[in-house]
Every structure is written in C-alpha cells, then in structure tokens.
Automatic annotation (TrEMBL):
Protein name: DNA polymerase I
InterPro entries from the UniProt entry: 3'-5'_exonuclease_dom, 5-3_exonucl_a-hlix_arch_N, 5-3_exonuclease, 5-3_exonuclease_C_sf, DNA-dir_DNA_pol_A_CS, DNA-dir_DNA_pol_A_palm_dom, DNA/RNA_pol_sf, DNA_polI_H3TH
SUBUNIT field: Single-chain monomer with multiple functions.
Keyword vocabulary terms for this entry: DNA damage, DNA repair, DNA replication, DNA-binding, DNA-directed DNA polymerase, Exonuclease, Hydrolase, Nuclease, Nucleotidyltransferase, Transferase
C-alpha cells in the first residue's frame, strides 16, 4: 500500500445483523435452510462493490476487506466479565448463516478477516491506523458509533443503508464532540447494549458539555469536586474507577496481531464462475443473473458450488460463545490413563498392554501443563556455541528450526536468522524439556547506508554459520522439525541449502484434524499447550512504527524466534504419536510430507508471462471499449461520464425517458446490471452497449493490467504460493497470484491464458484428468453401468441420458445430453431439485423427477450417500479412498439445516478428496518418473490447477515426456488402490497455456 491508495473496511458483523433485521425471512427452497441474512449480505456487498467502482466520485478502493467478530470471548471479557452479558444469543435461524456469510465473502474474492480474542472493531482500527500512517485514505463501511473514534480527515465512515458519509463534522454534529473525544464520551455515557457501565445519570449531551468544560475524562475526574450539580458530582466521584474501566472497554485497540497485512487486502476482481457457483448453491437467482451479466458469464454453464458449513469457533459469528462439540474436547484436557492407571510421563517407555493411544495421551497431558520458560532462551553469537548445538542435534537426532526473514516472500526475502530447538536429554530422553535459541545472521542497525543500515554487531558471519548448518540441515540422519516449513525450505534453497528429512507439525495437524480447527502455530499452541505465543506485531510493531524483522533488536527478536522453535518441537511430541495411534501415518507420509518439497520446487520455477500479450490485450480491450464509448455517445446524443451512475441514469431515464426507471434511496436513478439487462432484453440498444462497456473495462483493469505486477524482478517469472492445509478435503489452493481462478469460460478470459507462455526452445504441456470425480464416484459407489461406460471409453453424459431417458446415444439431441451432464455433476455435490431446476431452467417438479429417476437407474449412488452419512454420524468424519479424514463434527446437529449441510459436505468429501489425493500422488511421483526417463532436466512441473498439471518441456523432449506424464497420472492410485474404473488423462503441448489446455 502506498500514499494515495484507498482502503475500504467493511464491518462484516454489522452487515450481518443489518441484513438479517432489514429483510423478511427467507429460506432456501430446496431444504428450508434460512438464508435471509446471506441474501441481504450478498446483495449489500454486490451493490457496495458496484457503486465503489464509480470513478466519477473519486472513492474507488484499491484495497478492500470484510472484517468479522471471531467470537464473544475477547480481551474485554477478561477486563470485565459482565461485558456484553446483556446480549442474548443470536436468533436460531441466524446461527447457521454466519459460516455461510464468511463463505460468501470468499466467493466475492474478498479478504475475510477475523482474529481470535479481538472484536471486528479492533481489527478495523488497526488496519485504519496502519493505512493512515502510510498516507492512504480509509473508508469504514459502518454506522456504528463505536467506530467514530477513528474518524479523521483521512478516515471516514460510510453508512451504506442511508448512503451517508460520516466525517469529522458529522461526528461533532451528532455527538457534540470531535472524534478524538468519543472514547471519553462513551466511557461516561456507557452502553446498555454492550453492558459498559459508564457513569449513572450521564447522557450524551451532559458528557459533551463536561468534556467541553474540562477537556478530557482524566481532568474531569481529577476536578470532579468543582462540579456544581450535587447529584452529578457525587455520581462522577463515586464511579470514577467505573468510568476508567469503561474507557478501557470502549477504546479500540490498534495493535491487533494481523495474519494478513495491508498488501494482502488489494482489491481483486470478482471471479464470476466462483461467485455464481456460490450464489446458485444458495438459490439466489436474481443476483446470479446480475453477476453473470456483469462478469460476462453464462450462468447455465456453471455448476452450483459445494458450500461447507463452518460450525463452531469463528463460524458462530459475533457474540456467540461456542463450546466444543461433544466428543471434540482437546487431548490437553482429557485424562486417558496409561496402563498403570496413572498418566505416563512424557518420554517414558510404555510397555505391557499399553496402546499407542496411551503414549499420545500421555504426551498431550504432559505438554499441556509443561512450563514454557522464555528466560532460558539464548542468542547464539559465537561459533563454539553453534557447534555445540549442532553436536547436540546429532546426539538427539531431532532438531527444530525455522528461518526468519525480512519479508514474507521466500523468493525475495533476505535471511535474518535461524531459530533452533532441541529436546534436553538431561531431563528426559523424549523431550520433556525443550531448549531453544536464536542465531542472528542478518540483523541491521538502521544506521549507515540508505538500504537499511549496516549489520548489527556481534553476529556470526552468514557464510560461516550457514556452512556449518548446511551439514546438519542436509543430513537425513537428523530429523528437522518445524511449522509451515515450505517457507524455510524455499528461503534456504536460495542460500544453497536443501533441507533433508523433516516433519511439519502444520501438516501433521492437518492430517489429524482437517475441519476441526486452524493449523497456525498460534492456534495449535493454544489448543494443545494452553499457551498464547508472542505475535509478530508484538515484536516488530505495526503501522508507521512497524519494523522489518531484520531491523528488530536482536534480543527481542530472539524471544520471538526461539519460541517458535520451542513450540514446534513441543507440538511434534504431541502430534507424532497421534498419527500412529489414529492410523494416519501413511496419509501424512505419502500425501502431505512429500508435497512440501514438490510444491516448493514448483513455486521456485514459476511460469513466464508475455507482458506484450497482456499489453496488447489491454490495448484491444481499450480500443473496443473506446469504440463502444463512441456508439454510446451517439445513441445518447451527447458525451457523458459512462462510469457515473448518476449521469447514466439521467441520460437513460431523464433525457431518453426509457421505461422501468426506479430511484434509489439517494434519489438517483438505479443503473444496476439487472436494470440494464432488462432494458436490453426488450430491445433498447444503449443499455446493452453500457453492459458491454462495463465488462470490457473491468477485464482490462483487473486482469490484463494487473498480472504484470506479479512478475518477479529477478527471475522475470510469476511465482504463485500453494497452500497445503487450507481446505477440509485436501485440495490445494494458491495465492499471490491465485492462478487456479483465472477465468476460462469467456473468450477474453481464455485470451488471458495465452499470456502464460513457454520460454524459447520449450513448450507448455497441460495434462488434465478427464472427469476424475465422476470416475471416483463410479469406483466408490461401485455403479456397474458407469464403470462399464468408463471402461469402454464412451461418452458418459450421453450414456447417462440414454439410460435415464431411453434416447439412443447416436444422434442424441445436445439438450438431452446437457441435462444428463448437469445431473451427473450435480449428484456429486448433492444438488437439490431446486438447484437443478435453476440450472436447467425447468420446473422444480420436473427436476425432482429427473433426480428420482437417476437414483432409480443407479441405486448404488443412493446407497453410497446413505452409507456415507451413517458413517459420518457414527465417527464424526469421512475418509477418502486413501484414508484422509475430513471431519464434520456437526453431522448430528439438532438443527436440520446445519445437519443437512454437513451431510452434503460429507457425501462430497470422499469424492473430491480422493480426486485431490490422486493428483497429489501423481505430483509426488512425477519428478522421479521424469528422472527415470532421463527427462529431469528437460521437463519441469510448474503448476497445479485442480485436476490439471502444467509442465514446461524442451521442444525435442515433448514426445518422450507426454507418455511419462500421462502414465504417471493415470496410475497414480496404484498400488494403494486398484481403481474399478480407468483414470484418463488428456495432455497436449503448445506455446501457451490456452492452446495446451
């Protein structure tokens, strides 16, 4: 973020309740799920995004985030146990919508931000002050008086319901004090809704008068004896401490530890297919059509998404305490005995009739109460001490480590230091005690040259230290332990160190508890160790005063970095035996751990883009937009600002008098996409041209102009970052940039893929699984007709249509096949009659008949669904064909809507998860397969996009590479699983991604 940028911060929790109370109840027709708040939220957000891009009023955001309350348990409850005690639980019909609204935010391709222990207002305050310090402008989308303390000349509020901007004068007009005195005013007045006590008998007007007279709360309390009114004076004196407490409760924190920094809030374009998939899953037909028009998508060709319900923890929404579901208490609080009836000490050898679960429980019990003594952490500043630690690593065979850097991009970050952790054998052979240290290598003083100053004193030479560490880090006889190790792996590889033999506790936790909680080190530490770690913001600061890690004082940096190694090792001792006890070792060893290096190599390679193609596309889009502009001006009879809804409305409904005009609450004509589409549908040319112009200008600004900004300055390639532990089912996701969501359903979108090119002398190879999820379904449900169709290589959709409707495959009408295709894919995602009716534009009863006939023809699918639900209800999770678990702890919820969501997700997870596992297995084996064929230097795997792998291959090696890639992918399930249906891969080579796909 830079000076001049504009950050929009949406009070998501406020949006939820405004949407819920402002609209009549609404339920999804397919299953009765309450979706009124979700509908209102989506419509409010869509309108906000549409209006926000109105460049004529000069408030187009460059950065955007939606902020939510994590739960009612915040630091304020620790200050005052009665804080918000007056608030009742949210209405029952609202509860299941909290998680859906978060999913909606992500479907809009917007950052969805929440932080445990803090309210949404504190997060908003932190971002606002950070952005303001940079020189950016901030608009807070809320009318909440609690946020008015943040208003400054550069920070405004906007009440979207009233279309009203709130600035400094507006705060003064309403409350009688400027924003900087709102904290003191609220502390005096109190808040009955939040149960902030305040001072009895003091209302807003009285508080404003007192602040004008005395200046601030502290002065008022000191001079309370001067107040003439007896009752008022007595109340203020008697409740002085209550007022001070109230001030602490109402004052917003501006130092919230944020997982996503300002740069992570860049406003990205909406992904039309993704958003439409979500809206169709919710049954929001009107908004689906609006979005489809605005995003130039054919909604009929887009399947409804599978939307999993988040239930428990953050998903409960604001001010709803969420106890752990039954059966999900943490092992730290459990009390399974060892074989002698007493908990075994950590590291002790359990013999006799003891089970692996006993060791796992004993470890969890021990580390839940073991003291974490940061005073024992040390800074390594000389070679002898470092050598001692390396020798100790060889003695124990285990070394925890992490790499600290000056930035979060491992492809460009400078190494600041290495943290180390060891089990202390003097106490117990299995690590009952941990000793931890930090080795600073690149910390700077801030003095000296303009690039950040010279190196701080008393640090080992980077080369000398890394030469020593390289030996142990690359030695497979010493196990390296860390959390989210892909970052350190990539960073150290740039320093010529390739880490060998490692365990990643994030991936261990993901295998054990996907769907049950977050996988950050902070969340794992709190869950299993009962310890809240030091945050990066605490050590480095934030906002204008924030420092890069290499500029932090070494001793302060040591406490933070050493703690990470300490906690990682403790978590390893807790989680490692659980893998054995719960029989998930093979999932971790075969599907998770090997992927770390595989993805790191792919990220390091990156992919080339052709800036000229993107520039040319931008030029083409600009020319087409300009040509349409001329047509618009001709049709309108004058020039005007096309992007201005006000000017456009005046032209359409004022000057031209087109029918159907309706004014918004602000008195302006509505020029929404739906309004324009409706006008175009009845033959009006100007609205159609406006729609076309909007689509072209959006593509230009959000795609062709933006992608070059991701090119690495040294490699000249785009390097995405893959997330290994971000979905319940095992699917990968990518960020910065998200290359898995590049639009491909429109002509312009496909053209964008043409900009992803091979380098001279190479081709891009795209290898894509054909209908893999249907094939997995045929395998797990064991459906003979489907199996036979796949074995014979026939058109599966035509075969389904023939089976269902009695229509011969030869000469089958395309419409009949399209309906069968919609059902085939819809069944995987638990489509309802309502959803299918929407998709096919048919009556719900007809869609219901289709689904009924489908199950009659393929009864094995219904049996699979019922058996899967029964298994999930009994165990709380489902498994892929390779044993990966996806947990759905609310599968037995008494709420029918929540239960239905969990059931649908549980049905889909083995299908989607098995497909994800298959391509993971293929990726892990690919490097070895290419090497075995002598192609390791000629063919490189670059990207994974769901069911597709993209390679860069030398021209003369294409014919050799294609069979290796296809064979590896088609046989990826073997030997663990002998698929009942063949896997099929389509692969081709071309000079760009679009042609290869």
């Amino acid at each position: 973020m830079k000076k001049g940028d504009h950050l929009f911060l949406v009070d998501g929790s406020g949006f939820i309740f405004r949407a819920f109370h402002a609209l009549p109840p609404l339920t999804r027709k397919s299953d009765g799920l309450p979706v009124g708040a979700v509908s209102g939220f989506c419509n409010m957000l869509w309108k906000l995004l549409t209006d926000a891009r109105d460049t004529s009023v000069g408030v187009t955001p460059t950065h955007f985030a939606v902020i939510f309350d994590y739960s009612a348990k915040t630091f304020r409850k620790d200050l005052y146990d009665s804080y918000k005690a007056n608030r009742s639980a949210p209405p029952e019909e609202l509860v299941p919508q909290f998680g859906l609204i978060r999913e909606a935010t992500r479907a809009f391709n917007l950052p969805c931000i929440e932080t445990e222990g803090f309210e949404a207002d504190d997060i908003i305050a932190t971002y606002a002050r950070q952005a303001e310090a940079i020189g950016a402008d901030v608009t807070i989308i809320s009318s909440d008086k609690d946020l008015m303390q943040l208003v400054t000349p550069n920070v405004h509020m906007y009440d979207s319901m009233k279309d009203k901007q709130i600035g400094v004068p507006d705060v003064i007009e309403k409350w009688g004090v400027p924003p900087e005195k709102m904290i003191d005013l609220q502390a005096m007045v109190g808040d009955s809704v939040d149960n902030v006590p305040g001072i009895p008998g003091i209302g807003p007007k009285t508080a404003a008068q007192l602040l004008e007279e005395f200046g601030d709360l502290d002065t008022l309390l000191e001079r309370a004896g001067e107040i003439k009114q007896v009752k008022r004076r007595e109340n203020i004196i008697a409740h002085a401490e209550q007022a001070r407490l109230s001030r602490r409760l109402v004052q917003l924190r501006t130092d919230v530890p944020l997982d996503v920094d300002l740069e992570g809030l860049i406003l990205e374009p909406q992904n039309g297919p993704k958003l439409i998939g979500f809206l169709k899953a919710m049954g929001f037909g009107t908004l689906t059509r609006r979005v489809a028009a605005a995003c130039d998508c054919n909604a009929d060709e887009i399947d409804a998404a599978v939307v999993e319900v988040e239930w428990g923890g953050a998903a409960h929404g604001p001010d709803l305490d969420a106890p752990a579901p039954a059966g999900e208490a943490s092992a730290a609080n459990a009390s399974a005995p060892a074989s002698n009836g007493k908990p075994a000490a950590a590291g002790s050898v359990i013999v006799g009739e003891a089970r692996p679960a006993d060791l796992a429980q004993a470890r969890a019990d021990f580390y839940a109460t073991a003291k974490i003594d940061k005073s024992c952490y040390i800074t390594i500043r000389d070679v002898e001490v470092l050598d001692d630690w390396i020798r100790a690593a060889y003695e124990t065979g285990v070394l925890a480590f992490d790499a600290e850097a000056a930035s979060i991009d491992p492809m460009q970050a400078e190494l600041a230091g290495i943290s180390l952790g060891l089990p202390d054998n003097a106490h117990t052979p299995a690590g009952g005690e941990i000793r931890s240290a930090y080795l600073p290598l690149g910390h700077k003083t801030g003095d000296g040259d303009l690039l950040g100053g010279g190196l701080a004193e008393n640090q080992l030479s980077m080369k000398e230290a890394l030469d020593r560490l390289k030996i142990v880090l690359e030695d497979p006889s010493v196990l390296k332990v860390g959390h989210n190790m892909k970052f350190a792996y990539l960073l150290l590889k740039r320093y010529s160190i390739v880490v060998q033999s490692y365990d990643d506790v994030m991936l261990m936790s993901y295998v054990l508890e996907a769907g049950k909680g977050g996988q950050t080190l902070d969340s794992l530490s709190e869950r299993w160790l009962g310890h809240v770690p030091m945050t990066f913001k605490e050590v480095a600061g934030s906002g204008k005063a924030g420092l890069a890690f290499d500029m932090v004082d070494i001793e302060r940096a040591m406490t933070y970095a050493a703690e990470k190694a300490d906690l990682s090792l403790r978590m390893w001792f807790v989680l490692k035996p659980r893998l054995v006890a719960e029989r998930l070792t093979r999932v971790y060893e075969r599907l998770e751990r090997p992927m770390l290096a595989t993805l790191a190599e792919m990220e390091e390679r990156g992919i080339t883009i052709d800036r000229q193609i993107l520039s040319r596309l931008s030029g083409e889009l600009a020319q087409r937009a300009a040509a349409i502009e001329d047509e618009i001006y001709h049709l309108a009879g004058e020039k005007f600002t096309i992007g201005s809804p006000k000017q456009l409305g005046d032209i359409l409904f004022g000057k031209l008098g087109l029918p159907g005009g309706a004014k918004t609450k602000t008195g302006q004509w509505s020029t929404s996409a739906q309004v324009l589409e409706e006008l175009a549908a009845v033959g009006h040319e100007l609205p159609r041209k406006i729609v076309d112009w909007r689509q072209l200008t959006k593509l230009k600004s959000t795609y062709t102009d933006a992608l070059p900004g991701y090119v690495h300055p040294q490699t000249k390639r785009v390097h995405t970052s893959y997330s290994l532990a971000s979905t319940t089912t095992g699917r990968l996701s990518s960020v910065e940039p998200n290359l898995q969501n590049i639009p491909i359903r429109t002509t312009e979108g496909r053209k964008i893929r043409t900009a992803f090119i091979s380098t001279p002398g190479h081709k891009l190879v795209s290898a894509d699984y054909s209908q893999i999820e249907l094939r997995v379904l045929a395998h797990v449900a064991d459906i003979p007709p489907l199996r036979q169709a796949f074995a014979d290589g026939v058109d599966i959709h035509a075969m389904t249509a023939s089976e269902m409707f009695g229509v011969p495959v030869e000469g089958m009408p395309s419409e009949v096949r399209r309906r069968a295709k919609a059902i085939n894919f819809g069944i995987i995602y638990g489509i309802s009659a309502f959803g299918l009716a929407n998709q096919l534009s048919i009556e719900r009863s007809e869609a219901g008949d289709y689904i009924k006939k489908y199950f009659e023809r393929f009864p094995g699918i219904r049996d699979y669904m019922e058996n899967t639900k029964a298994f999930a209800r009994e165990h709380g999770y489902v498994e892929t064909i390779f044993g990966r678990r996806a947990h759905y702890p609310d599968i037995k919820s008494s709420n029918p809507s929540v239960r239905a969501f969990n059931e649908r997700a549980a049905i889909n997870a083995p299908i989607q998860g098995s497909a994800a596992d298959i391509i993971r297995r293929a990726m892990v084996r690919m490097e070895g397969a290419l090497a075995k064929a002598g192609l390791q230097h000629k063919a490189r795997m670059l990207l994974q996009v769901h069911d597709e792998l993209i390679f860069e291959v030398e021209d003369d090696a294409i014919d050799e590479t294609l069979p290796v890639v296809i064979s590896t992918m088609e046989n990826a399930a073997m030997p663990a699983i002998a698929m009942r249906v063949p896997l099929k891969v389509d692969a081709r080579a071309a000079s760009n991604w679009d042609e290869a796909h």
